[in-house]
Structures are given as structure tokens and as C-alpha cells.
Amino acid sequence: MNKKPVVIDVRTPAEFMGGNVAGSINIPLQEVPHRVEEIRKMDGPIWLCCASGNRSGQATAFLRANGIDCENAGSWLDVNYEMQTMK
């Protein structure tokens, strides 16, 4: 892996405050359409996560339709585990 991914958590701020991936960015799903240009400027692979992978799947489809290369990484707990093993 060349670069650590930029992790965007699309859960609500309350869910995010309850636990999240260290260094992740909270952009709730409903804000994603308004923050496309901000996301487009992010450097590195973009991984989206949420509680189960459903909302991050919706965000991934939307961003890809807008020309942004990104991955649905699923649950934030899975992403947290992946990031820990990426040393």
C-alpha cells in the first residue's frame, strides 16, 4: 500500500462521536452532495464507511457518478481493523 487512505465516515455526528476510525473525517451522508469539491481535492485513496456499509455504499455510488475514485469500505469497525493492520 503506497498511501494510507482518506477515511470519510458518512454516519451522523452523534454516531461518529460514539466511536470512529482515528483520523477519519465525518461528512454525514446528507452533506456529501454539497461537499463534492472538497472531497475531490482530497489526496490519496478515499474510503467511505458507516455503520453497516449501506450509507457508505450510497455515498460511493454518488461520488463515482461525479467522477471521484472511491471505495465503499463498509463498517467503520472493519475499517478501524484494516487501518490497525496497515502499519
Account of the 3D structure:
The protein is α/β, with parallel strands linked by helices and 87 residues long. It is built from four helices and four strands; from the N terminus they run βαβαβαβα. It has helices at residues 13-17, 36-40, 54-65, 76-84, and strands at 6-9, 25-26, 46-50, 71-75. Strand 3 (46-50), helix 3 and strand 4 (71-75) form a beta-alpha-beta unit. The longest helix is centred in the C-terminal third of the chain and has 12 residues, at 54-65. The protein is globular. 28% of the residues are buried. The model has no long low-confidence stretch (mean pLDDT 95).
Distance between the termini: 10 Å
N-to-C order of helices and strands: EHEHEHEH
Q: Radius of gyration, rounded?
A: 12 Å
Dominant shape: globular
Unreliable spans: none
- In CATH, what is the class? Alpha Beta
CATH architecture field: 3-Layer(aba) Sandwich
The named CATH superfamily: Rhodanese-like domain
Give me the CATH fold name.
Oxidized Rhodanese, domain 1
Work out the number of β strands. Answer: 4
| Structural class based on helices, strands and sheet pairing | alpha/beta
Q: Major beta sheet, specifics?
A: 4 strands, parallel
How helical, in percent, are the residues? 25-40%
Number of domains: 1
Q: In percent, how much strand structure appears in the residues?
A: 15-25%
Order of strands, main sheet, comes to 2-1-3-4
Number of helices: 4
Mean pLDDT: 95
